[in-house]
């Protein structure tokens, strides 16, 4: 039986890793094809919208998986402090696993896309909104009122993304630990 082509998935995986390391503007199609080992002809077959479509699909896939992880963690019944610590332990592990060469691919793309990249703008906005909602829902389920849960979720997301950037710059997991502690303090203050 013939092997089904994985060119599409290989390109998305390579793009995610490249975006994580160098942002959206930092990579080109030739490098993406080289890293994914995908045939050139498969690029526009799978992604007729080119690099912008690839970026949007990376964002959408990562957004969906991460929001699901937030919801699963919240559904586990843990308290808010444990939720916070668990998320930031995971982000610290991710930073360390890529030897501090990368950050969250969403933040990396968000920092480098242009005003004409409408598809990316929508994908990034929807991604962050989904994450904020999942975090706010977790906070509300643990007794925080709706207004404060929204404030907490926005600050949590900003701290999480900022921790990735600082971790890359400092080559350390300390920003994740510090962000976790700050979010625990904020959760206490808002509860």
From TrEMBL:
<dbReference type="InterPro" id="IPR054156">
    <property type="entry name" value="YxaF_TetR_C"/>
</dbReference>
<dbReference type="Pfam" id="PF00440">
    <property type="entry name" value="TetR_N"/>
</dbReference>
<feature type="DNA-binding region" description="H-T-H motif">
    <location>
        <begin position="28"/>
        <end position="47"/>
    </location>
</feature>
<dbReference type="InterPro" id="IPR036271">
    <property type="entry name" value="Tet_transcr_reg_TetR-rel_C_sf"/>
</dbReference>
<protein>
    <recommendedName>
        <fullName>HTH tetR-type domain-containing protein</fullName>
    </recommendedName>
</protein>
<keyword id="KW-0805">Transcription regulation</keyword>
<keyword id="KW-0238">DNA-binding</keyword>
<dbReference type="InterPro" id="IPR001647">
    <property type="entry name" value="HTH_TetR"/>
</dbReference>
<feature type="domain" description="HTH tetR-type">
    <location>
        <begin position="5"/>
        <end position="65"/>
    </location>
</feature>
<dbReference type="Pfam" id="PF21993">
    <property type="entry name" value="TetR_C_13_2"/>
</dbReference>
<dbReference type="GO" id="GO:0003677">
    <property type="term" value="F:DNA binding"/>
</dbReference>
<dbReference type="InterPro" id="IPR009057">
    <property type="entry name" value="Homeodomain-like_sf"/>
</dbReference>
<keyword id="KW-0804">Transcription</keyword>
């Amino acid at each position: 039986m013939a092997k089904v082509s994985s060119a599409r998935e290989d390109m998305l995986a390579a793009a995610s890793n490249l975006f994580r390391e160098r942002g959206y503007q930092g990579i080109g199609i030739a490098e993406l094809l080289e890293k994914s080992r995908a045939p050139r002809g498969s690029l526009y077959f799978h992604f007729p919208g080119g690099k912008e479509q690839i970026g949007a699909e990376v964002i959408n896939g990562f957004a969906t998986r991460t929001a699901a992880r937030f919801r699963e963690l919240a559904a586990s019944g843990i308290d808010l402090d444990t939720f916070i610590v668990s998320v930031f332990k995971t982000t610290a592990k991710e930073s360390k696993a890529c030897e501090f060469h990368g950050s969250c691919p969403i933040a990396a793309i968000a920092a480098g896309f242009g005003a004409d990249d409408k598809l990316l703008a929508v994908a990034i906005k929807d991604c962050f909104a989904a994450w904020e909602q999942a975090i706010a829902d977790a906070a509300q389920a643990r007794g925080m009122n709706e207004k404060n849960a929204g404030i907490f979720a926005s600050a949590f997301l900003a701290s999480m993304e900022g921790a990735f950037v600082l971790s890359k710059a400092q080559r350390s997991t300390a920003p994740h630990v510090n962000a976790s502690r700050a979010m625990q303090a904020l959760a206490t203050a808002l509860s």
